[in-house]
Specification:
By secondary structure, this protein is of the alpha+beta class. It has 2 domains: about 140 residues, Beta Barrel (Butyryl-CoA Dehydrogenase, subunit A, domain 2); about 110 residues, no CATH class. The protein contains 9 helices and 8 strands. A hairpin with an 8-residue loop joins strand 6 and strand 7. Helix 1 runs antiparallel to helix 3, helix 4 packs antiparallel against helix 5 and helix 6 runs antiparallel to helix 7. The longest helix is centred in the middle third of the chain and has 30 residues. The structure holds flavin-adenine dinucleotide. The site of flavin-adenine dinucleotide has 20 residues, from strand 1, helix 8 and helix 9.
């Protein structure tokens, strides 16, 4: 809902909107985001999954990785390379793909916590109807930017397993609430929770009233969320003291141990902290852009990971 909905509302055809928005809102159909590749993460515009036109269809070959929930998804939003001779941002086309199309293989990846949140997705001669293109041929980067802007806001506004209340209850259970340093950390958790709430309300008000000056930059929201999420996860384990090393045997069946390891998911997913700091430096502080050597070079001649 946070990624596909706003993108189709801004760039989708009337048919795409009519077909997909209602089942998406109802939760009848699940989507995944097929953007990252083994050689294209932070430098997403280097992506190499190839789409070649064949009449009313496109034939897609390539590999995606870190695709959250692909194993459950009905549809995916897919970025492909359609003009290798254009500069890297200029030769990308954005598609809707039915995840049950022949040629799509989804392989779950198991993380440190023992769950498979994301997947590798292999695409071999996958046929996609031309009507599933979102935006213009080779105009996919503009569409992808809409998705990514909304992704930052979605991650920072999402439901949170850890809250001030969960941290406080652990501090009480472990008899740590008289410790002045712990009290200071608890105050920080509470303060961060309020700041995030008000920043999110400002963004929602900006969307609802059209007062763009109220909007908070998505990178700021995302990095603030990530920092407070990491702080809560590590504090929870710290409060448990020696029990914090027990994982699943700890009280709460390893709740804080899971949250502590899980801090890396939002720190990397949806763009890393470093990349969001670059965005803030350039777009908010007006610092010079990062130097690049391949901005105007045809993708086929650029150096890639
Ligand atoms: C939990 C989770 C869920 C995800 N879900 C999805 C999904 O559903 N769909 C999808 O397409 N992708 C998904 N991703 C992938 C995610 O978008 C990428 O992992 C992320 O963009 C970073 O790319 P990378 O892993 O290739 O790291 P790299 O880009 O190789 O980065 C490696 C390191 O270099 C740093 N770095 C890179 N470039 C710069 C720079 N210019 N300036 C400063 N530092 C830099 C990074 O910050 C990082 O520390 C997910 C990732 C995670 C962790």
């Amino acid at each position: 809902m946070g990624l596909v909905g706003p993108t189709l509302m801004a760039h989708g055809t009337r048919e795409q909107q009519q077909r997909h928005l209602t089942p998406l809102l109802r939760g009848d159909e699940v989507w995944c985001q097929l953007f990252s590749e083994p050689g294209a993460g932070s430098d997403l515009a280097s992506l190499a999954t190839r789409a070649i036109r064949d009449g009313d269809e496109w034939i897609v070959n390539g590999q995606k990785v870190w695709t959250s929930s692909a194993q459950h998804a009905d549809f995916g939003i897919l970025l492909t390379r359609t003009d290798p001779d254009a500069a890297k941002h200029g030769g990308i086309t954005y598609f809707i793909v039915d995840m049950r199309t022949p040629g799509i293989e989804v392989r779950p990846l198991v993380q440190a916590q023992g769950v498979a949140h994301f997947n590798e997705v292999f695409l071999s001669d996958v046929r996609i109807p031309a009507a599933n293109m979102v935006g213009d041929e080779n105009g996919g980067w503009t569409v992808a930017r809409t998705t990514m802007r909304n992704e930052s806001a979605m991650i920072s506004g999402g439901g949170q397993a850890t809250t001030f209340a969960t941290v406080l209850s652990t501090a009480r259970r472990c008899g740590r609430t008289d410790d002045p340093i712990v009290r200071q950390e608890l105050a920080k958790v509470w303060g961060n929770e309020q700041i995030l709430r008000y920043l999110s309300m400002r963004t929602q008000t900006a969307v609802m009233t059209g007062r763009r000056e109220l909007a908070v930059h998505g990178s700021l929201l995302k990095n603030f969320f990530t920092r407070s999420f990491t702080h809560r996860g590590t504090l929870g384990v710290h409060l448990e003291g020696a029990e914090g090393m027990l994982d699943a045997d700890a009280e709460g069946a390893g709740f804080w141990q899971y949250q502590c390891i899980n801090q890396f998911a939002p720190r990397i997913g949806g763009g890393t902290e470093e990349v969001h700091r670059n965005n803030l430096a350039e777009q908010v502080l007006g610092l010079p852009r990062e130097p690049t050597s391949d901005h105007d070079v045809p993708w086929s001649q650029s150096r890639r990971a």
